[in-house]
């Protein structure tokens, strides 16, 4: 494990200290004679795990009591359906800010339930045919009709595939400062934070709903954490399936049916690790800025060998996407063969997950919470060495 450097986009690296705790508990959690994988979700033992995980999640982001925290299944993709189903009882439209693959998919999902997505802005660049930015907030086409307001405004704070991230507090602050009439309508903001979940502070009261899968920053695949302001639990469509019903799960403390017990247990350990060993989300944010800053610096100083096309203001701390450029003599654009060679060689050196998403190609290094600064330094050394040997 010490010679393997995990930069995969998710499921991602889990802190070694957490895995060591899991190993210690695996056969007999705290000496109770049962693994967490064997416990009844109705037992007092598992209830203590669930309560502890929820409290730590609440403490890290100072989540007020009027917000419910639920540990659900289905991933963020499941929430693409849950959001319109739970918030659109009396509305036919919703506002969507599209800044990458996942927010685009979310807007399309809403249509299946009779909710028309109003695309308030798109970060898609027609020249590069890639998502590279977040459009100027002053130009957002928000639906400010008091007669027929949208059910909610959805955005994805960090686009994993495209490497686009909204700066801290950027979306809520832009709405508050630039769109006063819209802000006065109290339209709930829905934040999909799957790939930068618990990686920096936020003001939870700026949002109506926040959700994120655990498998990138706070654990393993199988559990999705959903945080909802309690007054919004009365807005579901009549067709909302019970398995996607936030109010039903909130009433039963995430245990309407058998929850993903082991995934919740690991998420609780990861959240406690952030709180007790990383200086909270404030400490994690500073480390993430150092990690991503060092890697972007190496890319920018590569004399055009490596290229990141995202506007600098919106470069992701979590997912650094980049390409290898062909020389002008070779006709420009991207050297896909050399990129494949880099991926293969990186794997031989212990680096895992450097290839880009299958839909866009290229290269990507994901710098989630458990990735260390030392591992990023080693990656930078490898990239510089590869450049030295292959730049023409």
Explain the overall architecture.
- The chain has 392 residues and is of the alpha/beta class.
- 36% of the residues lie in helices and 16% in strands.
- α1 (16-25) crosses α8 and α3 packs across α4 (101-111).
- The mean pLDDT is 96.
Radius of gyration: 22 Å
Task: Provide the residue-averaged pLDDT.
Answer: 96
Order of helices and strands: EHHEHEHEEEEEEHHEEEHHHEEHEEH
Query: Per the principal axes of the C-alpha atoms, what is the gross shape?
Result: globular
Distinct helical segment count: 11
Unreliable stretches (pLDDT < 50, length at least 5) are: none
- Rounded to the nearest angstrom, the distance between the terminal CA atoms is 35 Å
Structural class: alpha/beta
Strand content: 15-25%
Q: What kind of sheet is the major sheet?
A: 7 strands, mixed
* Helix amount: 25-40%
Count of β-strands: 16
Task: Based on the model shown, name its key terms.
single chain, 392 residues, alpha/beta, 7-stranded mixed sheet, 3-stranded antiparallel sheet, globular
Gist?
It is built from eleven helices and 16 strands.
What is the topology?
Layout: E1 5-6, H1 16-25, H2 44-60, E2 67-72, H3 75-87, E3 93-98, H4 101-111, E4 116-122, E5 124-125, E6 130-131, E7 153-156, E8 158-159, E9 164-165, H5 170-178, H6 180-184, E10 189-192, E11 209-213, E12 224-229, H7 246-251, H8 261-277, H9 280-300, E13 306-307, E14 319-324, H10 336-348, E15 351-352, E16 363-366, H11 373-390
Parallel strand pairs: 1-15, 3-4, 3-7, 7-10, 10-11
Antiparallel strand pairs: 2-12, 5-6, 8-9, 11-12, 13-14, 14-16
Helix pairs in contact: 1-8, 2-8, 3-4, 8-9, 9-11
């Amino acid at each position: 494990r010490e010679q393997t450097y995990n930069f995969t986009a998710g499921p991602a690296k889990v802190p070694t200290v957490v895995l060591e705790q899991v190993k210690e508990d695996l056969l007999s959690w705290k000496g109770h004679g049962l693994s967490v994988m064997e416990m009844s979700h109705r037992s007092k033992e598992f209830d203590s795990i669930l309560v502890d995980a929820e409290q730590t999640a609440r403490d890290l982001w100072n989540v007020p009591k009027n917000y419910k925290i639920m540990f659900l299944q289905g991933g963020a993709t499941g929430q693409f359906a849950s959001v319109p189903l739970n918030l659109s009882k009396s509305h036919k439209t919703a506002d969507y800010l599209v800044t990458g693959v996942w927010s685009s998919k979310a807007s399309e999902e809403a249509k299946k339930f009779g909710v028309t997505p109003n695309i308030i802005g798109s970060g898609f660049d027609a020249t590069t045919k890639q998502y590279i930015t977040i459009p100027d907030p002053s130009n957002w086409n928000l639906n400010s009709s008091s007669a027929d307001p949208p059910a909610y405004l959805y955005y994805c704070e960090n686009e994993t595939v495209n490497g686009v991230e909204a700066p801290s507090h950027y979306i809520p602050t832009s709405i508050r400062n630039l769109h006063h009439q819209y802000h006065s309508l109290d339209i709930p903001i829905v934040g999909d934070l799957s790939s930068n979940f618990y990686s920096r502070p936020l003001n939870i009261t700026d949002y109506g709903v926040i959700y994120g899968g655990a498998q990138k920053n706070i654990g393993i695949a199988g559990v999705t954490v959903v945080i909802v302001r309690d007054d919004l639990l009365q807005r579901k469509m009549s067709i909302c399936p019970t398995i996607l019903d936030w109010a039903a799960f909130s009433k039963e403390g995430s245990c309407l049916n058998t929850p993903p017990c082991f995934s919740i247990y690991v998420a609780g350990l990861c959240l406690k690790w952030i709180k007790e060993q990383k200086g909270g989300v404030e400490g994690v944010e500073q480390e993430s800025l150092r990690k991503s800053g060092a890697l972007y610096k190496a890319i920018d100083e590569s004399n055009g060998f490596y290229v990141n096309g995202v506007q600098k203001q919106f470069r992701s701390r979590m997912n650094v996407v980049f390409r290898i450029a062909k020389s002008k003599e070779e006709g420009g654009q991207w050297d896909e063969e050399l990129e494949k060679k880099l991926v293969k060689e990186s794997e031989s050196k212990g680096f895992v997950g450097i290839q880009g998403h299958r839909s866009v190609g290229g290269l990507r290094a994901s710098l989630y919470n458990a990735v260390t600064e030392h591992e990023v330094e080693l990656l930078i050394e490898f990239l510089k060495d590869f450049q030295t040997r292959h730049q023409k």
